[in-house]
Design a protein that fits this description.
CATH superfamily of the largest domain: NADH-ubiquinone/plastoquinone oxidoreductase chain 6, subunit NuoJ
Largest sheet: none
Number of helices: 7
Low-confidence stretches: none
CATH class of the largest domain: Mainly Alpha
Number of domains: 2
Structural class: mainly alpha
CATH topology of the largest domain: Four Helix Bundle (Hemerythrin (Met), subunit A)
Number of strands: 0
Length: about 170
């Protein structure tokens, strides 16, 4: 039953990922990307990582995609569907085919790795994902976490300054 569910989610993920790059309308591409993010969150749930699934839905499928859709709508991007470049399509198809061939080769020739790290499945179920992620962020990865927050603050200030000049 799990294998069937995995296959269904995989088919939906692949189709929605293909629609992201083939849709002519940017809004439709963004909606397809949201569906791909939801499929990724489903994978996290299947891997017994509910915290990562919730973060995936809230951060990517929620906040980031809303920002992208608003940007697309505010920029009023018009797409001319009549312009097709056959050489680019053929070149992209060839690159995509070889990438798919390489991926299938790697999957066939590789084997699953054993879990590594200090936390086993029992410890994860006992303590919980959220607590372990919080402990790691605020102990071992405190400096990168703070640098990232300062970088985001500088980006927000820069965006406000750039927006102020236009008004």
């Amino acid at each position: 039953m799990e294998t069937l569910f995995f296959l269904i989610v995989s088919v939906v993920a692949v189709i929605s990922a293909i629609l992201v790059i083939t849709c002519k309308n940017p809004i439709n591409s963004a909606l397809s990307l949201i569906m791909t993010f939801f499929c990724l969150a489903t994978y996290y749930v299947m891997l017994d990582a509910p915290f990562m699934a919730a973060v995936q839905v809230m951060v990517y499928a929620g906040a980031i995609m809303v920002l992208m859709v608003f940007t697309i709508m505010l920029l009023n991007i018009r797409v001319d569907a009549s312009k097709t470049h056959s050489q680019k399509i053929v070149f992209g198809t060839i690159i995509g085919f070889f990438t798919l061939l390489n991926t299938v080769f790697v999957i066939v020739k590789s084997r699953a790795a054993l879990p590594t790290g200090p936390y086993s499945g029992e410890i994860l179920r006992k303590i919980g994902h959220t607590e372990l992620v919080g402990k790691e962020i605020f102990t071992n990865f405190l400096l990168p976490f703070e640098v990232t927050s300062i970088l985001l603050l500088v980006a927000i200030i820069g965006a406000v300054i750039l927006a102020k000049k236009k008004i």
